[in-house]
Structure formats: C-alpha cells, structure tokens
Batch of 2 targets.
Target 1
Amino acid sequence: MIKFIIKTFLASALLMIVSCSEPVATSPDITVSEAWVRIPPKGRDIAAGYFVLNNSGSKDVLLSVSSPVAHTVEIHQHIMADGMMQMQEVPKLAIPAGGEIVFTSGGYHLMMFGVTDIQLGQEVELIFVFEKSGTKSFLATIRTQAK
Ligand SMILES: [Cu+2]
C-alpha cells in the first residue's frame, strides 16, 4: 500500500513538473515582411532597402544580406555624430528572442550598391544569412516611396 502511494505521488509530481514548465523556443523563427527597395534616381546605382524583421523564436544574429540585383549589400544604421546624421555599417545585427526590428528611413536600412536592371513594381530577392537560421530568402518590391 505504501509503495502504491509513493508511486502515485511520484507520478503526479512528475506530471506537475511537465505541465508547469512553459514551452521554451529552442530555435529562432524569423520572417521578413513589408520588404521594399527604393528605386535609385536616374543615372544612380545605389538603392536603400526597408522591411520588418520578426523573430517569434529564440535569439539569432543577422550576418549579411545579398541580392542578385546588387553588387554589394550592406546593413546600415543612422547615428548622430557631431550634431550630424551619419550612416554607419552594422557588421552584425543581434535579433532578440521574440524581437522585431524595423528597417526604415532614418534608422536601420539596407544599402545596395551597384544596382542594375530594376524596374518599378518588380519583385527582387533579398537573401539573408543568419547565424542560427542559416540562409533565408524574401522578396522585396521596387517602389519610389513607402506605402
Ligand atoms: Cu546607408
């Protein structure tokens, strides 16, 4: 009888531990939405890219971005230095667990150099490389301004 009680107690204790522990995301889950690229003025080949990056999982790090329509893509940030707004390259961008990072005019943005053969309304591929999530590809629309 005592043995039975102990067994029952252990079983329910174990059940409590299992049911009380909250689910913990063990991997990042990243999506990129509202992605668009501002078409450069005629005769120029530098474009800026904007989007919203969401992570519903654990933390990750954005290492680089590339695109078939650009020679080079850099991650940039606007900073105030000596009373002037300046741009700075961000070599790695930490994405917190459950975090959202908005790439927008005056904040984080993509700087795309050597952009060729893009047209308004076209969808171009942006290829993101993350430390944990690996390579993920998303589409961005070529526009003149934010919606
Ligand atoms: Cu820039």
Target 2
Amino acid sequence: MLRTFVLFCLASLAIACTPLAGQAVGELRLDDPWARATPPGSSVSGGFLTVRNLGGQDDRLLSVRSSAAREVQIHEVRDDGGMMRMRPLPDGLAVPAGASVALQPGGYHLMFIDPKRPFAGGDVVVATLVFEKAGDVEVSFQVRGEAARPGSGGHAHH
Ligand SMILES: [Cu+2]
C-alpha cells in the first residue's frame, strides 16, 4: 500500500500527493502533528508527530523553533531505574533512510518550553522543524485535550 502510494507520487507532482493529514517535504513525510494542551500550572507542553523517511539518505531532526514558546527541545524518555525520565537529545533525532520515527507520549517528543500562552484544545501551534538534509519544515500542530491528567505522559518538569 505504501509502496503503491510512493510510486504514484513519483509518477506525478509531489505537491498533488500531500494527503490531508500529512505533509510531504522532499523524501520526508510528516504525519499527524499534534500538541498536548498545557496542563494547569505547567510551563511545558509535548509535541508529537510521525516522521517517515521515504528516501535513500539518512536525515536528522536537528532542532525546532517556534514563536509560540520560548524554546522547543527534542526529548527522549528513558527508563532510569524504574523511573521514566526525559532528557533533551543534544544531537537531535536520527531519521534513517526508510525508517519511520514516531514522536509520541512516553517516547520521543518535542517539548515546548514556556509557551507564550498556554496551549488550549483547538489551537494550532506552528513550529519550524530543522532537518539536516530536508532543511526547514514548517509544521502546524493541532492542540488536543483540555489538560493532561497529572502524572500522565511523563511531562512534568520541575
Ligand atoms: Cu519532555
């Protein structure tokens, strides 16, 4: 199914192939970008999407910036002796050729630090993802939910 779609895209103008829910940039497909509504009293929100590299060249998400937050970090979640902790990835996130990398609750994610105003359900948060090969890609994150339950998703910063 995927292969059929790719072949179809190669055979036509790539811009006509961008499905509603996704975004095609060169060899990258960015699917379902969404952000979590900022929990009450929190100064961070998580951002999620799936990055698929349909090309033959490894790529890497190097950094993210957004006018909606003071800073956007790329985080991973690790099991640290039974405690799930997250930490920034200093070298960004590799997106190997042919791979699909999911940024999702409990795993890799983007961390919007100090949103200019809290993200609320229904908002759209625009961020620029900077890839090593694909360059700058502007992505619109749909904000979902009113608030995360306390302790869910491992997104509490102190
Ligand atoms: Cu985080």
